[in-house]
Amino acid sequence: MFARPGAAATAQSGAYIATGADDAALIARVARGDARAFETLYRAYFPRLARFIERTTRRPELVEEILNDTMFVVSTGAHKYDGSSKVSTWIFAIAWRKSLKALRDVDVPLEADEGIEAVADEAEPKHEVMRAQLRRVLSEAVDALSPNHRAVIELTYFHEIAYHEIAQIMGCPVDTVKTRMFHARRRLKALLPERLEDIL
Question: Any idea where the domains of the chain sit in the sequence?
Fold first, then answer.
């Protein structure tokens, strides 16, 4: 369907610094059938989507298929993008739905959220040192979480996406995102209490 970009393509993608306006312009061009615009978008999103899909599904063998399915929807459905969210939010939402479908197809149980209570507003992490520490510490521990919890951790700490955008991506209320984050962080504290005590 779509080929994985080669080394040259990856190098070129590093030169593309996406902004909301840039992505919106690219999507508009893709909707008009501009193959070069799609290639630029594909290269820009390939590394981010590949990481997100692999970390949330824990199925490396499914990454390429899910990513290609995602970008196929982007290429054929670009005309459906209505600007009500960021292009990145729209694309990640497609990737999330495709990831869940792939997990269902291989009979991986999707765990229910622990509890339905609303969690009080928490300030989103902003301190860069805290983010750097979390990236190092959480890399392996995140694998022990459910897909929903892994996705929230990945999108928040590794892609620096705000809760309201995560809610759009995952198709749930913001309070549900906060609840998932609460339970994910509690689980991670239980897994790595000594290392995370001073971070979370």
Answer: 17-108, 110-200
- Domain 110-200 falls in which CATH fold? Arc Repressor Mutant, subunit A (1.10.10)
**Domain boundaries 17-108, CATH class:** mainly alpha
> Cα–Cα distance between 67 and 152 in angstroms, integer?
19
d(CA 63, CA 65): 6
Across 17-21, 39-43, 135-139, the highest mean pLDDT is recorded for: 39-43
Write out pLDDT tens, residues 86-133.
Answer: 999 999 999 999 999 998 888 755 554 544 333 334 444 445 666 666
Q: Mark residue 17 as left, alpha or beta (left: phi above 0; alpha: psi -120 to 50; beta: remaining).
A: beta
Closest listed residue to residue 43, CA positions, set 33, 56, 55, 30: 30
Neighbours of 170 (CB within 10 A): 20
